[in-house]
Amino acid sequence: MVAILREYGTERMIVNSAADWGRSDPLKTWRTGMTMLEHGFTEDDVDRVLWRNPVAFYGQSGNLVLDPVPGFVAGEAPAPATFEGSSVLRGVRA
Q1: Local mean pLDDT, 10-residue blocks, the chain (94 residues)
Q2: β partners of residue 87
Q3: Which stretches of the chain are DSSP H helices?
């Protein structure tokens, strides 16, 4: 990925890490960011590729909500979120 970013730049580039049914590495994006820093990219470059570009791309749908989660305090376990009376946590009732 670092070689691709060097060749094509960071504009309109995103890094995705599948965490679905197949073999995946959910920390791949973090590792990519660390590798970018090790190879001379700036923290701003990493932020662009791993945060700002994806937000700009997925935000085009109008369905990306980045509002803070009510009741969530950084560093603490979040309160179970609900949607129409159902918890997003399996087996937990609101």
Answers
A1: 96 82 81 96 97 94 81 66 61 50
A2: 82
A3: 2-8, 28-38, 43-47, 53-59
